[in-house]
């Protein structure tokens, strides 16, 4: 999926895990304008608790306003659960079935978890794109079959060697799950400006300690 008409910023955030207030805060800090900016939402919007349904509704509203969203493993798990649900929840699940597993935009590939090395893009499985870990990010040649820099979440960056709450960078790969689920940080990346907006998700400083940083990640 490509967009060439919109000349605004290209923003991306992943692994929100129920932190809809943190998401709204960072979009406000970045002065997100859906009429000009492109926003890509990278999956794992919900957590394992019922109070995260509001986050999924927030994601749906952002998409209806012009953002693009992809599936994470939390969403695919939800889609495959046969349990009875309310009408509103079933409607949200039906909507999840319409979301893609990846988005291609301006020389970047946005995916939740990564890609299976040696497999062409069109042959990648949904399971790998939402669940793969070290087989993707731990291999230096894992992007050789892909047509761009891969921006992904799923694996918290501190587990890949980055400092807690910071982005992770390797050859044509940028990891943006900065550990919101684990009490670290939730991060919104302005791709071309190489700027991040982040806030704490620690219990004692929830949605505080807002940081705006200029980086050098597009090497």
UniProtKB/TrEMBL annotation:
Every copy of the Calcineurin-like phosphoesterase domain together lies at 9-160
Q: What does the record list as coiled-coil region(s)?
A: none
Matching InterPro entries = Ap4A_hydrolase, Calcineurin-like_PHP, Metallo-depent_PP-like
Name of the protein in its database record: Metallophosphoesterase
